[in-house]
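Quick one:
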Amino acid sequence: MTEAAEILDVTDQVRQFLAEQNQSGLAELLDPMPLSEALRQILNLSADERAAVLSLLPAELSAELVEEAPNELAVELVEGLAAPKAAEIIDEMHSDIQADVIGELDAEDAEAILAEMDAEDAADVRRLAEYDDETAGGLMAAETFTFRENDTVGAVLRRLASDEEDFERYRGQHPYILDEEGRPVGVVSLRSLLTARKSAKLSEIMTPPLTVPVDRKLEDLQDLFSEHPFLGMPVVETDGQLVGVVSRSAVDFAVLERAESESLRRQGVVGDELRSMPLLLRSRRRLAWLSANIILNIIAASVISAYEETLAAVIAIAVFLPMVSDMSGCSGNQAVAVTMRELSLGLVKFEDAMRVWRKEVLVGLINGVSLGAMIGIVAWVWKGNGYLGLVIGGALALNTLIAVSIGGVVPLLLKRFNQDPAAASGPLLTTITDMAGFFLVLSLASALMPWLL
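Output:
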């Protein structure tokens, strides 16, 4: 059976179970599948059918499917549900994911769902949704595994052995010890719990915790988890009160998500585009970037039109124009990539622009001369004219210097003015290197025209 036929069969079964309102049949069909595969099958349905599937499935399974989806798709799936059902599904999620989804919904939809949730849970979600996504507050989970200093080891072990709580939501947290004001004063390892006597108080075996403030940036969190082997760290407000725990896995996922997002933006894809999204939305997002590139390319092409006579006289130059612009663009993109990485790690700021430029100029000088010599020799050998090699090689060397200067500094400049360096650096670099490359080749060729003919 082909993959297409298999998809069709599953889709037909899903639609049949929907028509019959057969919850058990639908759950038995989708539950054994890997979550990514079950989500793929649901995306073959219309938006109304997806909402119907999530409404019919058990809330726990629906929550797992929504959690599996990229952020924008998760929001789209929740938006299609009635508020009571959406609240039931969101209630099955971890608090940090709840906040991510609720924070992306329209205010009216978000409030309708929160109104259906438990008041305490809704308050946690509202609080988490206020934090910046790339801070400890935005990445933390509100669920915390806490005790008091006077609690005993036996009390902790009894709580761990009981069935009263779902300890999966604590994601491997160690027990945190709080004082009377709710501030973390200690943490106890599971090894200590198992080796200490049951009557021992937690204050006797706890160690000082490493806490992070709610506004600690993602880069700093990444460094902290690199330095320490912790699975999670307690997050505190300005008054020192414990408000949540940020996990290593949440930080790792956020770093990966940022890298993927920056890569997509460099390619002109805005947001988490998926082909299941509305056609006009996807088209509008892409056109916004492509339209700007048309204008930039027209500007670059206008340089060529100003040197039509030179091109007509020495047609061989046309062969090398794209080489000069493309090779310089590659060098510039390398500089962009290094600056973007240093920006993400917090290693450079706008104030470092001159230092960055000097470093890039040195690399550009070496690589520009090397590349220029190689392509110049090719042009010389091909046409038997050393002046043609001088024009092409000199233009490439100079344009490489321009490209690495732009690639190294422009992201810092864009960041300084609160523009997205990942999305804007590429088009600016391409346009300027094209214009500069065309101008350098054609102007040098015009100056040396008597020796090129």
